[in-house]
Amino acid sequence: MSARQAVNRRRFMSGMSTALGAIALRPATGLRALEIGPVPVPQQGRRSEQEYDAQAKLANNENPWGPSESVMEAMNHAFKYANRYGYPDGDIVAEIAAHHGVERGNILLGAGSGEILEMVGATFLAPGRQVVGVEPSYTQVYSHASGLDADAITLPLLPDYRQDIAAIIDATRRNYRSVGFVYLCNPNNPTGRIVTAAEVRQLLDGIPEDVPVLIDEAYHHYVEDPAYATSVPYVLEGRPVIIARTFSKIHGMAGMRLGYAIAMPALIGRMRPHGTGSVNALVKWGGVAALRDTGSQARVRSATLELRREATTALTGMGYDVIPSDANFFMVNVRRPVQPVIEEFRKRGVLVGRPFPPMLEHLRVSVGTAEEMSRFAAAFREILPVATASLRRSPGR
Question: How many helices (H) and strands (E) does the chain have?
Answer without folding.
Answer: 12, 13
